[in-house]
Design a protein that fits this description.
It is built from seven helices and ten strands. Helix 1 packs across helix 6.
């Protein structure tokens, strides 16, 4: 399942970042606006120009979108792959250099793909497009996302065994990578572990 945007946004706001959430319908907007978050309507299946207008004035992209577990291969390709590619193109047009991609554990290693291969294909190639874009990227590949309180303890490495992680801890990691230079132009798997996020990221 895709990372819950509200969890990521709330973590950023708590740490005094100004956040704008790109959402695809007015119904989603209400959930963000009730907690004081600016929203912009745009559809990842729409044009690059639509994303450009939604992101104008921002200084970083955090891509957490996903088609969800109840859609087929077509939506996965359109959102997880082409939607990511359009967002990368929009960042390039706007001159926004910082781009954080939330991918999926083992997306970088075809030999580890066991199920939902079209999803892994989409994530793999979206990550490759970002790596080749010239943007200052960080690719975070979390394990299975849990809807439970975060522990603040994670494991981060280039290649980890399949495991899970609370969404809140993924959000903490996103926040920590925004300005942490040793994560620039790097990618890593992320699961629950024994180290604080800051300590684990120091080893990237």
């Amino acid at each position: 399942m895709p990372l819950n945007k509200q969890i990521a946004v709330q973590r950023l706001v708590k740490n005094e970042h100004t956040v704008r959430a790109m959402i695809r319908n007015e119904e989603q907007a209400k959930a963000f606006e009730t907690i004081g978050i600016e929203t912009r309507l745009a559809d990842l299946e729409g044009s690059v120009e639509e994303i450009v207008e939604a992101a104008r004035g921002c200084d970083a992209f955090v891509f957490t979108a996903g088609s969800g577990g109840h859609t087929g291969a077509d939506k996965t390709i359109l959102i997880d792959l082409d939607g990511a590619a359009k967002s990368i193109e929009a960042a390039t047009i706007l001159g926004v250099k910082r781009f954080i991609m939330v991918s999926a554990i083992h997306a970088n290693k075809r030999e580890n793909w066991s199920s939902i291969k079209y999803y892994m294909v989409a994530k793999h190639h979206a990550d490759k497009i970002l790596e080749q874009s010239g943007l200052t990227y960080t690719i975070i590949r979390p394990g299975g996302l849990l809807n439970e309180p975060g522990t603040g303890k994670v494991s981060i490495a280039e290649d980890l065994p399949t495991a899970s992680i609370p969404q809140e801890d993924v959000a903490k990691t996103i926040l920590a990578t925004l300005t942490k230079e040793n994560t620039f132009n790097r990618s890593f798997d992320l699961v629950s572990g024994e180290d604080k996020v800051s300590v684990a990221l120091n080893r990237v």
